[in-house]
């Protein structure tokens, strides 16, 4: 608990139209508009916007931003900070800790005059072979997402979902399994988990997924043999696994595959109705976001008396936190939750 003479975090961490602003440090965290100084939690486009003058993030996030936005648009000046390293900016101590969400994702930890705030960005507690695991940082204020903050959202162990996919592949060797998944994070996590489960055949990729897989490999994540799905013959894709953006799996692109079994890997697949409406035959509940239990456990473990909720289903979470003696506040930050899992699979832009 914060000693009585330290400032309340809301006196130095401000909610502005551009996002969270650390006033004494003079920097924004995941700003929604181009700013002078930005600290970026991870590379998803709703957190990492183009056009900032100065960007501080992990080396991996900077590389992902550059790969997606192009040289120059991912910060005129880039500064890499390793998890565990500490910087001092105008009297604010700043450090990063892994968030377990995607490669390079980090929680932004700040301390000013003895008062500590942690902005977690997006995070999950499940194991992910492509992202360093979430680390608990005790704080006075914890800022959390709430994408899946309803008791109905409980993600099963991801290994069981991968096993379901491989069982289906074994059952239908004449058909192509096309798995809809987001291009940053989910795609590479699925590949790595398939490899862990012993799938050593080539994995085929939609064009939208190829660049970031290359970036992951350049950053040291081994994904095995990957092939472009577009140049493969229909005959060669029988019994194969193809990864594509969620928006592509149920449209014309997938119909050229051999009797495709349409799968989608997303936390939303817990809602069977949504899976059915999207024409998904094999829903896989695999999410890069914390589920209900993980959100509550994390908000408790960080021991913060106060939790701010950036976006998502804040009402249920704030109510549940109140029952545990934790004060909750909804920030209603606009512009967050517009990428990856948080978008309905049928409306996602395959080119994004
Ligand atoms: Zn994200």
Automatic annotation (TrEMBL):
The keyword Repeat is assigned to this record: no
PROSITE patterns tied to this protein: RHODANESE_3
Segments forming domain Rhodanese: 138-221
Transcription keyword on record: no
Molecular function as annotated in GO: exonuclease activity; ligase activity; RNA endonuclease activity
Top EC group: hydrolase
Segments passing through the bilayer: none
InterPro entries the record matches: MBL (IPR050698), Rhodanese-like_dom (IPR001763), RibonucZ/Hydroxyglut_hydro (IPR036866), Xnuc_lig_assoc (IPR026360)
Enzyme nomenclature, EC number: 3.1.-.-
Keyword set, alphabetical order: Exonuclease, Hydrolase, Ligase, Nuclease
NCBIfam families in alphabetical order: Xnuc_lig_assoc
Name the UniProt record assigns to this protein: Ligase-associated DNA damage response exonuclease
Phylogenetic lineage: Bacteria, Pseudomonadati, Pseudomonadota, Alphaproteobacteria, Acetobacterales
């Amino acid at each position: 608990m914060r000693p009585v003479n330290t400032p309340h975090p809301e006196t130095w961490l401000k909610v502005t139209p551009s996002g969270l602003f650390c006033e004494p440090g003079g920097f924004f965290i995941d700003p929604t508009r181009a700013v002078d100084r930005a600290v970026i939690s991870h590379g998803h486009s709703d957190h990492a916007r183009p056009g900032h003058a100065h960007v501080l993030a992990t080396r991996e996030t900077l590389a992902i931003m550059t790969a997606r936005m192009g040289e120059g648009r991912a910060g005129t000046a880039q500064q890499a900070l390793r998890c565990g390293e500490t910087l001092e900016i105008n009297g604010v101590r700043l450090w990063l800790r892994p968030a377990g969400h995607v490669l390079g994702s980090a929680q932004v930890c700040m301390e000013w005059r003895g008062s500590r705030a942690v902005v977690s960005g997006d995070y999950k507690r499940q194991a992910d072979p492509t992202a360093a695991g979430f680390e608990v940082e005790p704080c006075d204020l914890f800022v959390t997402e709430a994408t899946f903050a309803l008791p109905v959202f409980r993600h099963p162990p991801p290994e069981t979902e991968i096993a379901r996919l491989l069982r289906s592949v074994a059952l239908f060797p004449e058909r192509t399994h096309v798995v809809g998944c987001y291009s940053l994070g989910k795609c590479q996590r699925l590949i790595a988990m398939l490899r862990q489960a012993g799938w050593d055949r080539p994995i085929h990729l939609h064009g939208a997924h190829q660049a970031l897989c290359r970036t992951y490999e350049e950053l040291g994540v081994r994904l095995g043999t990957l092939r472009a799905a577009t140049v493969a013959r229909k005959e060669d894709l029988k019994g194969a696994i193809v990864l594509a953006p969620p928006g592509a799996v149920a449209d014309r692109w997938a119909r050229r595959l051999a009797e495709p079994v349409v799968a989608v890997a997303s936390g939303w697949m817990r809602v069977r109705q949504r899976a059915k409406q999207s024409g998904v035959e094999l829903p896989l509940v695999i999410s890069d976001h914390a589920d209900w239990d993980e959100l509550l456990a994390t908000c408790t473990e960080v021991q913060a008396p106060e939790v701010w909720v950036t976006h998502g289903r804040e009402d249920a979470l704030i109510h549940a936190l109140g029952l545990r003696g934790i004060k909750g506040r909804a920030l209603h930050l606009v512009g967050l939750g517009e990428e990856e899992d948080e978008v309905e699979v049928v409306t996602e832009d395959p080119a994004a």
